[in-house]
Amino acid sequence: MRDIRIFFLLIVPIALFWSCRGPDEKLVDVTSFYPYDNHVFTTNKVDVNFVVQKVGKDLFANVRVNGNLVYKRELALTNNVVVELDKRTNVISVEVLDVDNNVVFSKEITVFYNKVETSKIEKRKVVVKPIRARKPKYTEVVGKMEEGVKEQLPKVEEIKESIYISSIEIDIKDELGLNTFRDLIVLKYAVEVNEEFKNKPILDILKSVKIEIVDVGGNVVFYQELSEPQATFEIKTSRLPTGSYILSIKAIDLNGRIYESSRWISIDKTPPTVSIGSLSNNMVVRDMFLFSVEVEDDSGVYEVYSSINERKLEYTKRGNTYIFSFNSRSYQNGRYTIHVYAKDRLGNETKTNFVILIDNWIEYVVDSNLGAGFHVTSFLDNDGGIHLAYYNSVKKSLFYAYNQGNLTNWIIQLVDSRADSGKYPSIYVDKFDRVHIAYTYINERWDDEDLRYGVYDGKNWDIKTLDEQDKAGRYTGIVVDNRGIPHISYYNYTVGSLRYMTYNIKMDRWEVSVPDSYENVGSDTSIDLDSKNIIHIVYLDNANGDLKHCYKKIEESDAYWRFEVI
Q1: What one-character-per-residue DSSP string does 369-420 give?
Q2: Are residues 396 and 513 in the same domain?
């Protein structure tokens, strides 16, 4: 029997220890708790606040006052409940439980309520002996503190003279009703004295007034001591980061007793979060353009707009998303900056810019005939005239179109009506206003092709076949020198070589040469002439996938062609 008793005595304390500890207190992390232990209140309504940094899944908070359950809700990041004190000594306990009612966090504090009596009672001299008490455990607070108060403290009517202050009123200027501030807090406080001591000068009763702001970690981030029983006070919060704080007004009477009134406040200096869709830097914009701006802010969005060159854009609103739109044809082609601006109700701002390129093509129908518009090449003369050469796939012919610059009245001519004529054209207008077109004849089976050339003197077209050897004539390029002599580059498909054709005035004949025939080269040619009369040809090296460049002076022989890989 003795052994059994020893086992019981050992096991029960261990079981009690683990039951108080809770199965897993890591499920919740409480970073701030108010009120503090052993606070004295002159009002029976007290704010209980606790802030949780990390919340586990499916957790609930219970708040009890003197054992009575007064609050039970799902745990949140910020938890607030107003409780009533019904005794002089009160025990407030907070428990966080999981879905299985296991305690994962618990805290217990003792607070005192000095109830103010207004009835007049005969005063008598009372000797109060000092009390020395060890710091009680939470489980012993209720019994020990109540017994100590009953045995050692004088009766209420004997100590009423020491309870000078009845309340501390706090009025914070909060026009938005958010209890959230950015750079400045304007508050008004008033210390009220009990009725029976109002005949005394308040400065003889009030020793000092302290204003404190404490962060969730318990650190004092603002402190100011005053002597006025009531005042309007400004607190600059420019150095306080965004977060939650406790603002407290503490009044100290002549006996050193502290009376306190506190409020939870928030500081918000975070600008609105802006997410922009369908808009990026250096993007090309044409015609009607839309982009979205999604704005979120805890304090509430006050203003959102977007503008181009200080001109605000129209928008439609869907929830917290703004759809901005504008017609880019209302602007000249060029670079513009789109400004996006958002401001919350506290005045925090978000600004961002995007550079766009408005590039609207002016479209006109030149030739509406079926099949028109294949293999188009163009030339712009010194007078602003537009010259086009193109192939009609239905009529299988080469056409020429001209416009003096008004883009509305086009003159269209049939250049070569022979079947399958007009592919791969290139066009040039010389200083004598003659139009030169180099192009290719390719039959339907693509097994025969020739290089052809046409020149227009203002009245008639003169058509010639310049190269009938093999399959020659694709990818033409043409340029005309100051003498009116054409220079043509093109590709020989049969042997895979670059060819160059020009007219020899002295010999009165067309002459062809092969600048480059190494493997398969010469397709996709382009030709030009610089101010020093040097011919430049750019073309593709199909075998190696390189872009090549060859050049020589007009009067030089073919042996002087020089080459480089671009």
Answers
A1: STTTTEEEEEEE-TTS-EEEEEEETTTTEEEEEEE-SSSS--EEEEEE-STT
A2: yes
Helix (H) or strand (E) run with residue 110 in it = strand 103-113
Domain boundary among 219, 251, 269: 269
Asked if residue 194 lies in contact with residue 221, where contact means CB atoms within 8 angstroms, the answer is: no
Domain membership flag for residue 366: no
26-73 pLDDT tens trace = 567 787 788 888 777 777 888 888 888 777 778 899 999 999 999 999
What percent of the chain clears pLDDT 90, i.e. is strictly above it? 65
What is the side-by-side strand order in the sheet with 165-172? Answer: 165-172, 184-193, 230-236
Q: Are residues 484 and 422 in the same domain?
A: yes
Rounded CA separation 499/501 (Å): 7
pLDDT band at 515; cut points 50, 70, 90:
very high
204-225 pLDDT tens trace: 899 999 999 999 888 999 999 9
Structural domain for 77, as ranges: 21-115+117-157
Rounded-to-integer distance, Cα 65 and Cα 320, Å: 43
Residue 11 lies in a domain: no
The structural domain count of the chain equals 4
Cα–Cα distances (Å) from 357 to 105, 286, 354, 462, in that order, read 60, 9, 10, 44
Residue 311 has pLDDT above 70, yes or no: yes
- Statement to judge: residues 537 and 397 lie in one domain: yes
Write out pLDDT tens, residues 350-363.
999 999 999 998 78
